[in-house]
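Re: that backbone. Tokens:
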């Protein structure tokens, strides 16, 4: 009996090939994208799960509340690591982490930069980064020891075994005390080299006003996180000042990747919001594929009516018929699952490019996800096929044999509702995609208050200003170079800050202000508009009098409520080049510019003029845009002449700025492509239904042609049945799409305005795709000779 059912199932699927192909393709594409999104979501949720002590490891963060600003930061007072360990017995390990860039030379004597972490000797005991060579207990105990990843060791030493052998890095002796397996891709910590933090010495970790060290703690087993968070919350009052408003918080390391809300985080950061969005899209696409399946199954039930009648007359029970038709659905789902995995593997390289990941479905090592997808596919097949199976198995033989029951004409309302659902989802995705794309484009192309185009930033590694100025003068001899400026932080990533007071400020009040050291050519190089004052003029001496010059932005001026600011003095507590109170004179006001990414509101910033005794970190060079390759080659030659021992490390400022919006860019690409796929799945359903309807109404088309109907008239007859459903789907989707996009945009301080364009585009796209999916079938049936079509059916 079962063998007969299986044979019958396959015969029916082959006999109705168009129906089978459309159903299987719709399910396969939906499942392929679901598999890809499921793998991506699994990867994002897996960050730092590989650490054996993951449930006991926390990053300490500071909620800075001073100078009229509140923000979360990973920089902490440098002595805090020891104070926490002394104050809280529940802490098993308190670990400093200082990240830095180090230049190394490979086996071919080519320099390259590596990401180095200065860490405690307990680091490898707390975090599970397995050693390929060496042991956890001793790898970081030697002050001259370093721990490398396999990739870094390969670059440095090639096939040579460097373990426990003496070497030098930039003239400093060291030996390799450990070699790590390469860092897992799902680690929020990404490094090439570990160095004992004690080599920095004790003095840099003694001042409570410094906030540049990162700190991790590992609690003893059985400790409660919430209790610990409450205990450390106000601990800074004890060590700094009772009046201080700054607080501490502990974030589980498993939450850092997706939940961290720290500007300019040094960790590998994702977005839980994006995960939720992609999870919802994955479910929507599966729902659409299921709707297609159900809709086409109901429609094609009419061609099975005589088969049902004969089986029932021959003694077949409803339960057996139900089993047969549901079995046919499951066979199609199993075929779709197989094809879905084939399609998934085919598109995986493209998908990895879109999401900027290196995903790989290692089936034998990822059986839980494989079986989950298989289970979801089977459940989808049962839910999608159960109603059509019940409908078909419930036909009455007498009505069918008398041709009073056409089966497929039953429940036309349900079919229309299902079509509306498909286009409803498609429109929501299209509007959402357009909203995300528009916002991403807006962020990347917003007027920043400076011009990053055709500017190259070259790193100088703490070079003296006297040497840099000579280097700059040499560069400017090239007519293709418009200007050049020395500065510390990137123009769009000025992350350091200090506190300032000014003449006439009430006692106890101050504002927090970001600070960046620059030379006299900074404004011209970046085309930042000076609105008041003359800016930086002439050389500067390092004194405590008014010769120290600063330029403020408009936001700083507004926060200070300062009238006629030029020539006024400010007093700032200290900065990263000065560990003392400093007096300076305001010599200029600039228009507000985005010195951080557009994810942040523009706040006060101060440009501080270098003096000749200082060192500079980088130089920005504005090019005229002609012959870029040769210009860069010339810059490299001049650089290597002045800095023969350093690597020529540069980047285009506009590309650096664009990287700040990788998460939005990634989301925009994914949602855009998936919205198009949703429309394709919906139109596959429309195509299948139109194919079915035209095949059932061939005689009607022949009669209409005999009566003089044109192709346009015949098209209108069939299209009318679907086009108004698309209109309804759009009207229902628009308010939902508006609500979702508006809520997403609320997370951005600067965002695009709402407009009717996305909704009109969604309507026209769904209309166009639906019409195109119908035209072929309508054209095919309308081309049939009326004499032949009248014999049809």
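Recovered sequence:
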């Amino acid at each position: 009996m079962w063998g007969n059912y299986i044979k019958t199932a396959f015969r029916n699927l082959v006999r109705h090939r168009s129906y089978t192909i459309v159903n299987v393709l719709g399910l396969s594409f939906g499942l392929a994208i679901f598999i890809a999104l499921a793998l991506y979501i699994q990867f994002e949720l897996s960050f730092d799960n590989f650490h054996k002590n993951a449930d006991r490891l926390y990053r300490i963060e500071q909620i800075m509340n001073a100078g009229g600003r509140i923000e979360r930061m990973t920089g902490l007072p440098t002595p805090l690591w020891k104070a926490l360990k002394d104050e809280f017995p529940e802490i098993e390990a308190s670990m400093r982490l200082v990240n830095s860039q180090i230049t190394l030379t490979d086996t071919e004597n080519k320099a390259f930069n590596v990401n180095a972490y200065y860490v405690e000797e307990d680091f490898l005991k707390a975090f599970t980064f397995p050693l390929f060579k060496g042991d956890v207990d001793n790898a970081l105990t030697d002050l001259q020891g370093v721990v490398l990843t396999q990739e870094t060791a390969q670059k440095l030493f090639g096939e040579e075994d460097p373990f426990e052998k003496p070497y030098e890095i930039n003239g400093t002796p060291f030996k390799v005390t450990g070699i790590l397996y390469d860092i897992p891709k799902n680690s929020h910590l990404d490094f090439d080299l570990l160095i004992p933090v004690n080599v920095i010495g004790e003095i840099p970790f003694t001042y409570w006003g410094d906030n540049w060290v990162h700190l991790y703690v590992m609690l003893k087993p059985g400790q409660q996180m919430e209790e610990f968070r409450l205990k450390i919350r106000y601990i800074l009052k004890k060590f700094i000042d009772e009046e201080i408003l700054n607080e501490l918080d502990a974030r589980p390391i498993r939450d850092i990747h997706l939940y961290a809300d720290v500007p300019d985080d040094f960790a590998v950061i994702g977005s839980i919001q994006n995960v939720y969005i992609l999870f919802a899209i994955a479910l929507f696409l599966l729902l659409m594929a299921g709707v297609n399946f159900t809709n086409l199954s109901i429609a094609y039930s009419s061609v099975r009516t005589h088969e049902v009648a004969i089986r029932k007359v021959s003694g077949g029970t409803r339960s057996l018929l139900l089993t047969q038709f549901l079995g046919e659905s499951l066979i199609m789902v199993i075929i779709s699952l197989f094809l879905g995995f084939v399609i998934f593997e085919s598109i995986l390289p493209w998908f990895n490019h879109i999401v900027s990941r290196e995903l790989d479905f290692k089936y034998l090592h990822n059986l839980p996800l494989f079986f989950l997808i298989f289970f979801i596919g089977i459940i989808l097949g049962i839910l999608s096929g159960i109603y059509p199976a019940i409908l078909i198995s419930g036909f009455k033989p007498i009505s069918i044999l008398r041709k009073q029951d056409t089966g497929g004409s039953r429940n036309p309302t349900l079919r229309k509702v299902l079509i509306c659902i498909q286009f409803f989802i498609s429109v929501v995705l299209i509007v959402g995609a357009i909203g995300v794309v528009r916002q991403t484009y807006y962020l990347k192309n917003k007027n920043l208050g400076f011009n990053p185009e055709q500017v190259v930033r070259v790193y100088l590694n703490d070079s003296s200003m006297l040497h840099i100025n000579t280097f700059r003068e040499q560069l400017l001899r090239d007519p293709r170079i418009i200007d050049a400026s020395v500065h510390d932080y990137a123009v769009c990533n000025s992350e350091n800050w200090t506190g300032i007071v000014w003449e006439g400020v009430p006692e106890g009040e101050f504002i927090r202000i970001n600070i960046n050291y620059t030379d006299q050519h900074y404004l011209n190089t970046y085309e930042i508009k000076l609105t008041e004052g003359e800016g930086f003029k002439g050389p500067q001496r390092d004194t405590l009098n008014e010769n120290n010059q600063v330029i403020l932005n408009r936001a700083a001026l507004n926060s200070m409520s300062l009238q006629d600011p030029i020539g006024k003095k400010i007093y700032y507590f200290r900065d990263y080049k000065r560990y003392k109170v400093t007096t300076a004179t305001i010599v200029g006001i600039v228009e507000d510019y985005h010195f951080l990414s557009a994810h942040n509101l523009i706040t006060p910033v101060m440009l501080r003029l270098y003096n000749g005794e200082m060192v500079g970190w980088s130089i920005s060079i504005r090019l005229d845009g002609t012959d870029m390759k040769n210009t860069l080659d010339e810059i490299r030659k001049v650089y290597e002449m002045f800095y023969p021992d350093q690597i020529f490390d540069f980047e285009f400022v506009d590309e650096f700025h664009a990287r700040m919006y990788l998460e939005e860019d990634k989301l925009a690409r994914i949602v855009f492509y998936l919205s198009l796929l949703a429309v394709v799945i919906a139109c596959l359903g429309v195509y299948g239904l139109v194919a079915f309807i035209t095949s059932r109404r061939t005689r009607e088309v022949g009669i209409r042609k005999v009566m003089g109907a044109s192709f346009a008239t015949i098209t209108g007859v069939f299209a009318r049945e679907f086009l108004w459903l698309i209109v309804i789907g759009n009207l229902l989707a628009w308010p939902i799409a508006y609500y979702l996009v508006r809520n997403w945009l609320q997370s951005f301080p600067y965002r695009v305005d709402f407009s009717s364009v996305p909704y009109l585009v969604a309507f026209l796209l769904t209309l166009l795709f639906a019409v195109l999916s119908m035209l072929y079938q309508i054209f095919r049936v309308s081309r049939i000779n009326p004499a032949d079509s009248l014999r049809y059916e």
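The CA atoms of residues 540 and 547 lie 7 Å apart. The mean pLDDT is 84.
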